[in-house]
Write a structure and sequence with these properties.
It is globular and about 40 Å long. The protein has eight helices and six strands. The longest helix is centred in the first third of the chain and has 16 residues. The two termini are 24 Å apart. It is α/β, with parallel strands linked by helices and 181 residues long. 40% of the residues are buried. The protein has one domain: Isochorismatase-like (Rossmann fold). Keywords: Hydrolase. It comes from Paracerasibacillus soli. GO terms for molecular function: hydrolase activity. Belongs to the isochorismatase family.
């Protein structure tokens, strides 16, 4: 069984740039999972820091309402790994999930950490690179020209243990006919 993880698609992140393409890709992937009656699990980062764009308890910390409507489960977390001190692993096991698909914010943190943690727990992992996004850029890391999403996708892909696809490759490889047309 497959499951989709939609990580930290929270209002505060979405307000920090134009992430409409990433959101549309995630919406389409969600539709595919729902059509196949496969679980869609949302992660919500619980950030207690006052200066955070997703400070817990604010409207900015809420999950995007357009996407959340299709969530089968919502799990709160407080670290980059969706598995650390959450019931995600128990939930996946109870559902019989063996293959997870990772999307979400911020590419270089929560989606990356979660993909690695999932692999370490024995799951087959597919990271959909262009269905992740980040509010950071090359200046944050003092690395001129850095394409964060591409860099993370390359590192995960080179591991030879985590499958990395872009949305179009996902559609070709996994999607039902409804997405292909």
């Amino acid at each position: 069984m497959r499951a989709l993880l939609v990580i930290d698609f929270q209002n505060g992140f979405l307000q920090m740039g134009d992430f409409s393409q990433e959101k549309e890709r995630v919406q389409n992937i969600i539709k595919d999972f729902k059509r196949n009656e496969q679980p869609v699990i949302f992660m919500r980062h619980k950030d207690e820091n006052e200066g955070s764009p997703i400070t817990f308890g604010t409207e900015e910390s809420e999950l995007d309402s357009d996407l959340k409507i299709d969530a089968d489960y919502v799990i709160e977390k407080s670290t980059p790994s969706a598995f650390f001190k959450t019931n995600l692993d128990d939930l996946l096991q109870s559902l019989g999930v063996t293959h997870i698909f990772v999307t979400g914010f911020n590419t270089e943190y929560c989606p990356q950490f979660t993909a690695i943690a999932a692999y370490d727990r024995g799951y087959q992992v597919t990271f959909i690179e262009d269905a992740t996004a980040t509010v950071n850029d090359d200046s944050v890391y003092e690395f001129p020209g850095l394409d964060i999403r591409d860099f993370v996708g390359s590192v995960l892909n080179w591991s030879n243990v985590i499958e990395v696809l872009d949305f179009e490759e996902y559609v070709e490889e996994y999607a039902e006919e409804g997405l292909k047309s």
